[in-house]
Amino acid sequence: MTQTLPVIQPDTLREPQARKPAWLKVRAPGGPNYIRLKALMRERNLHTVCEEARCPNIGECWQEQTATFMILGDVCTRRCGFCAVAHGRPEWEDWGEPDRVGRTVAEMALQHVVVTSVNRDDLADGGSEIFARTIAAIRREAPGCRVEVLIPDFQGSAAALETVLRARPDVLNHNIETVPRLYGPVRPGSRYARSLELFRRASGHATEPVTKSGMMLGLGEEPDEVRATMADLRAAGVQLLTLGQYLRPSPAHLPVARYVPPAEFEAFAADGRVLGFRHVEAGPLVRSSYHAKRQVEAACAAPPAD
Fold it and tell me: In this structure, is residue 12 part of a structural domain?
């Protein structure tokens, strides 16, 4: 059960300090593989969440030739308080995109690929068919590549989730993002209970995908709320968990309430292991897709939770 606390309003949050602590400083991107991958993405008219969400790990991941593809365009139908992706009403569906993603994955010789999307509440199926076709294209073009999908909630549609699951992704990821008390300012248009129900359905599905979720810390949540949310995710069948620091993309977004020190992330990771997660990736710079391949390998090596 989650703790009942007053709902926090965006204008009550304050940025705690002008400068980020030392543990959040990263090297600017610019290696040869980074430059090559960026050129390839532009050539194929593909988007990555690495760029759209201004991920601090883009230099490291792209230099290692790993990336998270963002399908279904770069305009989201929701306006989350933390997200740098443009919002509005998308005007198109690109049915050729799945094949381009598949060919790019093959050309990059990836062993583990993450496919995510903006929310497409304007589409009857939420974009689930293009997710399924993208999975199929990667299987066809790069049969040795493990496929992880980071999906929206599809507004709770069981049929849309079924479309994705029937395509047999290896990992089914959906980020819970924050504690229930903060859903108003952080995730307008989303529902905490709806996300948990998505995991209950996926965990009981015949295709048996590895299930995964992630949270941002530093938005004003209390430690007990974090632990309660972690417990809710485990009860819904989630096996992998990521915990990272929220970083404000611009002054128009929700401010950081505090910078969570590395020791606290380590403590939450220990709590997660006690709860029975097969793997917890926790740290200030951790993002949902950061070291995604290593996360799944670690989980596969760990004994199943009781």
Answer: no
How far lies 167's CA from each of 2, 62, 148, 149, 272, in Å? 34, 27, 11, 11, 30
3-state secondary structure of 217: strand
pLDDT class for 231, splitting at 50, 70, 90?
very high
Residue matched to tokens 């949050």? 13
Give me the domain span that covers residue 147. 26-301
pLDDT tens digits, residue range 177-215?
999 999 999 998 899 999 999 999 999 999 999 999 999
d(CA 130, CA 125): 9
Please compute, for residue 79, the number of CA atoms within 13 A of its CA located in the half-sphere on the CB side: 6
Residue 155 is assigned to a structural domain of this protein: yes
CATH number for the domain spanning 276: value is: 3.20.20.70
- Please count the other Cβ atoms lying within 10 Å of the Cβ belonging to residue 8: 19
- Interatomic CA distance for residues 179 and 185, integer angstroms: 11
pTM for the predicted model, two decimal places: 0.83
- Establish if 4 belongs to a structural domain: no
Residue pLDDT, tens place only, 250-283: 888 999 999 999 999 999 999 999 999 999 999 9
> Is residue 116 within 8 Å of 49, Cβ to Cβ?
yes
**pLDDT at position 284, please?**
92
**Of 197, 190, 145, whose CA–CA distance to 171 is shortest?**
145
Q: What is the pLDDT of residues 57-98, one digit of tens each?
A: 565 665 555 668 889 988 999 988 888 788 888 877 889 999
Is residue 279 within 8 A of residue 295, CB to CB? The reply is yes
Phi/psi region, residue 201 (left: phi>0; alpha: psi -120 to 50; beta: rest), is alpha
Q: Is 139 helix (H, G, I), strand (E, B) or coil?
A: helix
Which two structure tokens, joined as six digits, stand for 142?
């790069």
Rounded Cα–Cα distance for residues 186 and 256 (Å): 12
Domains in the chain, number: 1
